[in-house]
Amino acid sequence: MDLAAFLTEERERVDGALNRLLAPADAWPARLHQAMRYAVFGGGKRVRPVLARAACRAAGGDAELILEAACALEMVHTYSLIHDDLPALDDDTLRRGRATVHVAFDEALAILAGDALLTEAFAVLGRFPEGDGFAARRADACRLVAEAIGSRGMVGGQVEDLEATGATPDGVRLERIHRAKTGALLGVAVELGALLEGVEGASRAEFAGFGRRLGLLFQIADDILDVTGSAASLGKSPGKDAAAGKLTYPAVYGLEAARRKRDELASSLADEAQRLERGLGVLGALVNYVARRDR
Fold first, then answer.
1. Is the pLDDT of residue 96 over 90?
2. In order of start, what are the domains of the chain with their CATH numbers?
């Protein structure tokens, strides 16, 4: 398949829905909505909503029915990036080739823009897909996402990532951080697509497991890019993880071993994707994309 063309089309669909779901930039309070839109429409790849829609298709569903719910994942992801970039956390001034939100606006507004996006995401999950027939699935979706990003998921991973800064290299701790900080939301994206299609039991667990492992692959690739990428290609500051003493795969295992781990996991995930999609499909193509991306 032409993955580049597919991703372009998917981004356009997601961006159009996000534009409808978010308040206009001139709606009260205007600066807040401007900051939210600045962050959301800053050039993201839309990996999480694309994954949710791909999983829905793989489960035999209509991805258009879950478009808005998938967009809620992008709102959550954007909130996490805004807060990650803050001076108290990663203290980054560059994101996707532009000034981070706290630099472009101010720190207080960046915090509030992240808060608002997180809250809005659950309003969307609680509303879409519309109709009484989806009521139970909407409730399950809200619970699923909340657990993935809460104190035992993404936020917990962020906390341990901070605590592990400068610590002795520890592979077990590193994987725990990555599975929570990055893997949890990517995993829930895949599971959400299956959930909203009505997949249950062991089949849904297979989608969820694939998503979590794909999230780990994404973070391993990200760790490698922080060492090998440039500011121009990444759109953010490279080398900050090493400079800050962050626990990363290259720091724990070395660059070449990290690449081998990336490649081995990608190969395993490609086989899983074929089982889920009953052949070559979007999920398999996305595995290769995540492993080989340069930004």
1. no
2. 3-292 (1.10.600.10)
